[in-house]
């Protein structure tokens, strides 16, 4: 049987790994952490904990890399996602989550695998593409808390270099996390246990982000693209696994 101390250690290990991946690549922390933390803590604690730590990670990364944020793309993505959020709420009320997860999983795996084996996929040259991608991110974020994949695909197709990719995604996730956390607070999910775990995790998150930042700076652009596409395949597989969870 897991003791309280061992439970905290396991939670911190999961958060460290998730923060490291987010810092090194720019995304993937929530889908990595959620299933593991849900097993350890239950959804009522895991969901708001991932939201709060995601906000902390974004703030830590942006304190040193905000100059790399592509603000024109950031604002386009953010405004479009806000427009999409009401549609996401409708989808949450009337849609089938299993079908959405299946479609997202196949899309991410297909896009990632295609790019791994055929790197000549046409790039998006117009910033106007931020609007449809941001809209879809808003729909999925408000419906299923999965706003990241459309924005990640947009950044990959825009051929953003690693530092711009990482920083711009954090700006977008920062706004998303604030909205999600506010919703958790209104729903009464903020507890003493949650706030204590978040406080304890701060040095863990700081160290993970620092290590991830070093890795991010040392990854060549071509290798970074392959890493992002490989992680998209993994994230897509996680979406498919959620159908049976």
Query: Low-confidence stretches at least 5 residues in length (pLDDT < 50)?
Result: none
- Gyration radius (Cα, Å) is 17 Å
- What is the N-to-C succession of helices and strands? HHHHHHHHHH
What portion of the residues fall into strands of 2 or more residues?
under 5%
Task: Please state the average pLDDT score.
Answer: 82
Mass-distribution shape:
globular
Total domains, how many? 1
**End-to-end Cα distance:** 23 Å
The quaternary state of the protein chains shown equals single chain
Strand element count:
0
Describe the model.
With 245 residues, the chain is mainly α. It has one domain (4-242). It is 82% helix and 0% strand. It contains ten helices and no strands. α4 packs across α6 (130-144). The longest helix has 27 residues, at 192-218. The chain is globular, with a radius of gyration of 17 Å. The relative contact order is 0.20.
Characteristics:
245 residues; mainly alpha; 10 helices; 82% helix; globular
Give a brief outline of the structure.
82% of the residues lie in helices and 0% in strands.
